[in-house]
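Continuing the batch. This is chain 6 of the set; chains 1 through 5 are on the previous pages. Same settings as before, nothing changed between runs. Recording input and output for traceability.
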Amino acid sequence: MKNVKISITVCLMVVIAPFFIQSCSLNQTKKVNYSNLSIDSPQKLIEEIKEFGPDLLMNVDSYNILLRELEKYKDDGIVINSLDGITIEANSSYLEMLGYTPEEIESITYQELTPSKWHVMENDLFKKVVKTGYSGVYEKEYIRKDGTVFPIRIQSWMIMDENQNQIRLFGIVQDISIH
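Output for chain 6:
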């Protein structure tokens, strides 16, 4: 009888315990919280994106592209938009480029910052980002607060939540009028 109890105990420890441990660890997966991204600190932003890992974006390729591009263009404009275009957050480079304060930019969509001649093309690119997770690099124009129009180079990524739902757009924007 004693040997049976020992056998059952060993069986439980060897067979069932690993499943229990794995089950517990699966329930403790880290949740992606885009709102904590430090977009005004390029190095910290890169570290946070690496910590979140590829699940932050739709696919590994777009994740790797984002990390490479952030290393190259970390001093350029960085912006996070809602899926309907409203600016959620922008770094100081983006705000300076456009001439807005953080409070002002939060009520402006990227469509309002874009001259109307670019709207059809940008709508097509938005559909691409929804489908693939990444826009690729493209050029268009933005309108500053003072009304001046200037050329930009931009690329966008779809940000995902912990359930892989599309929730935000992440963009790197360069003012190419000064290059």
